[in-house]
Design a protein that fits this description.
3 domains, four-stranded antiparallel sheet, alpha+beta, five-stranded antiparallel sheet, about 10% strand, about 350 residues, elongated
């Protein structure tokens, strides 16, 4: 009987020892992440699996004098790897010395507290289920419980990922409904979406639907959120049509017509001001902090106030076009490729002056 008890205790120790390198490998994708974009929730869940070997090893050792010591050593070693999975700042760049310091505080003490709570609860559960009635061997019920624990551990990362995605979808739908009701809905653009005229800058609006555009957020969960948000907005657009803002936006045809009408004048005095925005050959800056500056100043700057677009200011330089509202908010930004395809040059602007 004594030999059977000793064998079970060695099994318990073997479980804890073997789990350490396995746990370190499972944590490595999270340890190596930069913090943004966020890593897959599947790998984030892995960092919490250090709890499982404590419960599993407890099936084979519940009252030995070394049990507490074994759990402490195991917990502190795994806390070292656990500390590396936490993003303390962005960009995240973990070093072994930083992991050691955060193991000493706060991860080590907190994980020890969790470990002993888990140990206490699991041992009471085993006692309730009469797992340790036969001290020299594991019962059939104990074997089934061990299989169940391993199964739950294997399912946990997948479940956590599914729950995280479901929460992101729910949040995306809720926020889309709220933003649409307030007239502040965003059009999240996918990488494979065709380019929208005038929507090349941050916070610019789409001439197709009148919504402020933004790129899909990087990161697995963030992309799920954006897709759910966009699905609601697509449904609203199908029901209600484009947002009213589309009337204030300028199309390529309108811009070409204004150039031919000779509306644009060369700017000679800087900074050119439109509401709270200051514009110069080097770029622009708004009072809200939005800015765009270039290395080389533009060779020329032409501007026109367009009364039919609520006194919007259209600015043309040597490689792009910016359109601002009367208050100075950036409405549209035409990038170099579109600008080049439009065939705009200073000679063209002068010819229609």
């Amino acid at each position: 009987m004594r030999k059977g008890i000793d064998n079970q205790r060695w099994i318990s120790i073997a479980i804890l020892v073997a789990s350490i390198p396995i746990y370190a490998c499972l944590c490595w994708p999270s340890i190596g992440r930069r913090g943004f974009p966020e890593t897959d929730p599947f790998w984030l869940a892995m960092s919490w699996l250090w709890i499982v070997p404590i419960v599993l090893s407890g099936l084979f050792d519940h009252a030995s004098s070394s049990r507490k010591q074994n759990v402490i050593i195991y917990t502190l070693i795994t806390a070292y790897f656990f500390s590396g999975t936490i993003v303390w700042m962005i960009p995240n760049c973990v070093t072994f010395s930083e992991m050691l310091l955060t193991t000493l505080f706060p991860c080590g003490p907190i994980n020890l507290l969790i470990a002993f709570v888990v140990e206490k609860i699991s041992q009471r559960l085993f006692q309730f289920l009469h797992i340790h009635d036969n001290a020299s061997s594991i019962t059939r019920r104990g074997i089934l419980l061990a299989v169940a624990i391993i199964g739950l551990a294997a399912a946990f990362p997948f479940t956590y990922r599914a729950v995280a995605f479901q929460a992101a979808r729910a949040s995306g739908r809720t926020n889309a409904e709220r933003d649409w009701a307030k007239g502040e809905a965003i059009w999240y653009m996918r990488r494979d979406d065709p380019a929208m005229f005038g929507a090349s800058g941050d916070g610019c609006y789409s001439v197709v639907n009148g919504l402020k555009t933004d790129r899909m957020r990087p990161g697995v969960t963030a992309t799920v959120y954006c897709e759910a948000y966009r699905a609601v907005v697509e449904q609203k657009l199908a029901q209600s049509g484009p947002a009213d803002k589309v009337k204030d936006l300028s199309t390529e045809t309108e811009l070409q017509a204004w150039i031919k009408e000779g509306r644009f004048r060369r700017v000679e005095s800087f900074p050119l001001k439109q509401g709270s925005t200051e514009i110069s050959p080097r770029g622009y800056k708004t009072s809200s902090g939005q800015a765009c500056f270039r290395g080389e100043p533009s060779k020329f700057l032409y501007s026109a106030i367009v009364s039919e677009k609520k006194d919007s200011l259209v600015v043309i330089n040597d490689d792009s076009i910016w359109i601002f509202t009367k208050s100075g908010q950036l409405l549209q930004s035409i990038d170099y490729e579109t600008y080049r395809q439009m065939g705009i040059t200073e000679a063209t602007l002068i010819a229609h002056h």
